[in-house]
Amino acid sequence: MFPSVALLSLSFLAITYGQQVGTLTAETHPKLSISQCSTGGSCETLQRSVVLDSNWRRLHSTSSSTNCYTGNTWDASLCPDPVTCAQNCALDGADYAGTYGITTNGNSLSLKFVTQSAQKNVGSRVYLLSEDDTTYEMFNLKNQEFTFDVDMSQLPCGLNGALYFVEMDSDGGKSRFPNNKAGSAYGTGYCDTQCPHDIKFINGEANILNWTGSANDPNAGTGQYGTCCNEMDVWEANSNGAAVTPHVCNVQGQTRCSGTQCGDGDERYDGICDKDGCDFNSFRMGDQTFLGVGKTVDTSSKFTVVTQFLTSDNTTSGTLSEIRRLYVQNGKVIANSKASIAGLDAYDSITDDFCNAQKTAFGDTNSFENLGGLPVMGDAFAQGMALVMSIWDDYAAQMLWLDSDYPTDADPSQPGVARGPCPTTSGVPSDVESQSPDATVIFSNIKFGPIGSTYTS
User: Fold this and answer.
1) What does the record list as coiled-coil region(s) (predicted)?
2) End-to-end CA distance of the chain
3) What is the rounded distance in angstroms from the CA atom of residue 89 to the CA atom of residue 162?
4) Largest CA distance in the chain
5) Is 236 a catalytic residue?
6) In a domain, 8, yes or no
7) CATH code at position 295
8) Domains held by the chain: number
9) Which of 137, 364, 412, 439 could form a disulfide bond with 405, CB atoms 3.0-4.6 angstroms apart?
10) Catalytic residue of the set 236, 267, 322, 433
11) Neighbouring-strand partners of residue 54
């Protein structure tokens, strides 16, 4: 996720974080049904649920209601060091609808951007749990397709309604790290290719070393460590644009990083993960009429997104060789747009050849190829990847990398700079939060199965 942002920055207010299990609020996971399909198109309904990421939850003393983290400051008495903090602080249950604006209905999940109750909450991130309700559902999509419906008609410039996969531990790290008593049932263990430093607990320890409060977000900060893993961004989008982007790392599974490993700032291309990824954004690839309000894929109403993960030998054990995209809207199957940039006009899907040609055409560093490309993404799926759904705004780059001209000091007429129609002044979090608090993304009708089994052509 976040392919052109040097720092993960999900915003949230008046909430805290942890690893032990608290008892002040009961944890009840909202139910969400999905479908597993078989060749021929018959599908079985699976009853599942979602869990809120631990980074949004209240964290308090195990022996009282005293918060361990307030604003962007840790309580030094409860958290004198990373291990003691993890032992002293309890992660509590969530009021999904009332506090976080997260609701489910059958096969539909709705994520509201700003929720005002006793406190103000901005954005959210949830994971799909397996049938046992205590571990993440793990997906291997090699030679499979993954399909969902999305309504993002209420997502303006500067917002991101995202659906993606990351190579988290199925139990949220509970078995690997003894100080993590909460596990996936409380949304622990997040990682992605940006190696985010704002995660409060990594490897079962509080990320308090060198903790620095954010300069522009009074409730966020960053610690010494980041948390890295392979990431497949199936859908990052708002009503003005969308991108599908694989990112890879040279490590397997959730890995804590420090220093150069994290690839921060000027060391972006020296780290263990590919932060840029290899994206297919139709607008960036030269077709500015394909996706948006009133366009070929009309984002003013619901539509279906189909993503196919093809292997070199058409088996589930083969090497991942291509990621194809198509859409279905109003009963019509819509093929993905074709790139119309010089050097890219032969492509309408993601392959290693496309990625190499794109990096050359745009003058970008090819960290995707350097770290192994699509075969590594396939290896991550073979290990199992967790499904993530989120809504967020961007304190680091205003989401301009998704829906506007980016970098802002580059000539937008140069290939790869124009990524969407939003003005470069859009996406300022304070503006988006005040002007579009009711913004919502709705994901529904999630299906997975063999190629061609999840939609009607």
Assistant:
1) none
2) 30
3) 30
4) 63
5) yes
6) no
7) 2.70.100.10
8) 1
9) 412
10) 236
11) none
